[in-house]
Amino acid sequence: MSGFGGVLPWARRTIVEQEKWLTPEEFSAMLGICQIVPGPNIVNLAVCVGSRFAGVSGALAAVLGLTLGPVALVILLGMLYEHYSYMPMVQGMLRGISAVGVGLIASTGFKMMRSELNYPPMLVVILFTVLAASYFQLGLGWVVLMASPLAFFLARKKANR
Amino acid sequence: MISTLASLFLKLSAFSLVAFGGINALLPALYDLSVNQEHWINTQTFADYFAIAQAAPGPNLMTVTLIGWNVGGILGAVIATIAIAWPSSIMIFFLQRTILNLRDKKKQQVIQYAAGALAVGLVLAAAWGIAVQINHSFAAHLLTIGTIAITFFTRWHPLYLIVIGGVLGVLGFI
After folding, report:
1. Would you state the pLDDT for residue B131?
2. Which residues of chain A have pLDDT under 50?
3. For residues A150 and B46, what is the distance between their CA atoms, to the nearest angstrom?
């Protein structure tokens, strides 16, 4: 519930620094995998950490613990929105927040791209994906399907350097 | 109603398995589904739900929860949240040990590099696609670009930026 601006930094602090459930290395390796496989990253991470300690039930408990509070809160906010969205002030506030939100997503993308810069050929995959998804407006499934062979080909070369 | 909820569940479940880069990468597809194809909500509501999900504490999949809530109330919200999470959760449950325990470290690297590049591409494409849909003024685009610049040059907590965006909006600049 205290996950303002994303839950990840808070998850790291609790899991690694306070409770010492995982070492920083274990956490990074786990997070690395959870960020690249499809699906909501933080839910994936909850499944990984939860199942490490108590199998299926641990995974379920972790996911429920992570989502129940925020889901209840966001439904409440949705109800408030129904009542007050006619107000120009509320509309303006949401316009401002969504513009910032898009910027935050873009900067996440750029930060992830930094680690790609040490092997520039990989940028071709990124460019291909962006063009296929934005310019040619292909569906997400198609983009992934078409970009994967090239991504794996270059990834093998990158690993064999 | 039942058929709408079933369609919500099935379509979001399918998204779950192709969302390399997480919910962020998924946003344009989510927009296309809920606004263009199914007409559950309009562009403005989508943008507002996105803003609420960004500003509220909790995982960023709350945009999905809000769309579900709009379609089918509390039941819809729960169904949408479960739908977007269950396929990928089951996959990672079985995959994590396999990947983490790979003897061949090189194979592990290849998987990480490939999926990492896909994720970067999809997240950047998503930011572009969503910016085009929800920013309707020059000032809004400027605020988006300013946000990117600030996150590059400072270590400000994202919450500050969200508050600044909200205040600028209330004052009528955006």
Report:
1. 94
2. 1-3, 5
3. 34
The CA distance from A134 to the nearest CA of chain B, in Å, is 6
Of B77, B118, B171, the CB nearest to A151: B118
DSSP code, position A19: S
Any idea which residue has 């120009």 for tokens?
A88
Q: Are A96 and B65 a contacting pair at CB < 8 A?
A: no
What pLDDT sits at residue A4? 52
Give which of B43, B152, B86, B91 is closest to A110, Cα–Cα.
B152
Taking alpha carbons only, the member of A115, A114, A120 closest to residue A154 is A120
Other Cβ atoms less than 10 A from the Cβ of A57: the count is 11
How far does the CA of residue A100 sit from the closest CA of chain B (Å)?
5
Enter the ipTM: 0.92
Q: Are B19 and A139 in contact (CB under 8 A)?
A: no
Q: Which residues of chain A does B96 touch, with a Cβ-Cβ cutoff of 8 Å?
A: 30, 33-34, 47-48, 51
- In eight-state DSSP terms, residue B60 is T
Residue B96: pLDDT above 90? no
Cβ–Cβ under 8 Å, residues B77 and A75 = yes
